[in-house]
Design goal:
By secondary structure, the protein is α+β, with helices and mostly antiparallel strands. It has a single domain, classed as Kinase associated domain 1, KA1 (TATA-Binding Protein). It has a 5-stranded antiparallel sheet, covered by helices on one side. A hairpin with a 3-residue loop joins strand 4 and strand 5. About 15% of the residues have low confidence.
Length: about 110
């Protein structure tokens, strides 16, 4: 009986970790090419503005992006370094836009 309880506990614990891992997404993109912060900021700003976001400088390594629609508005903080960026809160559309722009600029 004790053995069954241990097996059941291990099964429940591993299932919990598996399911929580599958339901999360990465909020962080890393690139092999290192760019100066000003270059990263410029690429990110340009891509976000072209996608309809209003972008405001926040810090040397952070921007605030806002998008206003008739029914909905959202604001996202974009933090970046020489080779990566992250969004808080995560936004699928903006993430894809920035990732594509940064990959495209590394191929040029």
């Amino acid at each position: 009986m004790k053995n069954n309880t241990k097996i059941l506990a291990a099964l429940l614990l591993s299932t919990t970790f598996y399911l929580s891992g599958c339901s999360t997404h990465s909020n962080f993109a890393t690139f092999e090419q290192h760019r100066p912060l000003k270059t990263m900021s410029s690429i990110i700003k340009k891509a976000a503005i072209e996608d309809g976001w209003r972008v405001t400088d926040f810090k040397e390594n952070a921007l605030i992006a806002e998008k206003f629609n008739t029914n909905n508005s959202k604001a996202v903080t974009i933090k970046f370094s020489n080779d990566s960026f992250s969004l808080e809160p995560y936004d699928d559309d903006l993430y894809d836009t920035l990732e594509n722009a940064l990959h495209k600029s590394s191929q040029e």
